[in-house]
Amino acid sequence: MLIRQAGPQDAKAVAEIWNDVIRNSAATFTNLEKTEDGLIADFAAKAADGKTFLVAELDGEVAGFATYAQFRGGPGYRHTMEHTVILSPRAWGRGIGRALMSAIEDHARAGGAHSLFGGVSAENADGIAFHTAIGFKEIARLPEVGRKFDRWMDLVLMQKIL
């Protein structure tokens, strides 16, 4: 396994992994699919903002990714970040998610972040268990704030102090 900075050559693989989750799961509430051009722009914007967008390679292919950005706008939130971590099914249970999150936490901490949030769908029991296992604490449940697949969904906010 190799964790590295995402580049334009990774956009197609990242889009495939992310769009599968968007289309087929309640792990994210959005139904707007990612495009290669949009991801390439996002990779560059993260780097320009001092953040990162990392990919994990397994057997030479992108098997997952993680990134983060400021939790909310404004200078008062500059030390609080929110992350995204998504793996392809072939990467589950191999320690890749942990490795990506460790790298994201290190990068965020080095950039002055104090706190890292994850917004996890309450229907994503594996996502909640994963975050708990790596030291995140559930700090809030927001009832019926997301809507997808013609139903209301709860959002679980999980936080780790870095």
TrEMBL record:
A Pfam family found in this protein is Acetyltransf_1
UniProt keyword list = Acyltransferase, Transferase
Q: Which GO terms describe its molecular function?
A: acyltransferase activity, transferring groups other than amino-acyl groups
Identify the CDD domains for this entry. NAT_SF
Q: Which residues form a coiled coil?
A: none
Is the keyword Repressor in the record? no
Q: What range(s) does the N-acetyltransferase domain occupy?
A: 1-162
User: What is the protein name stated in its UniProt record?
Assistant: GNAT family N-acetyltransferase
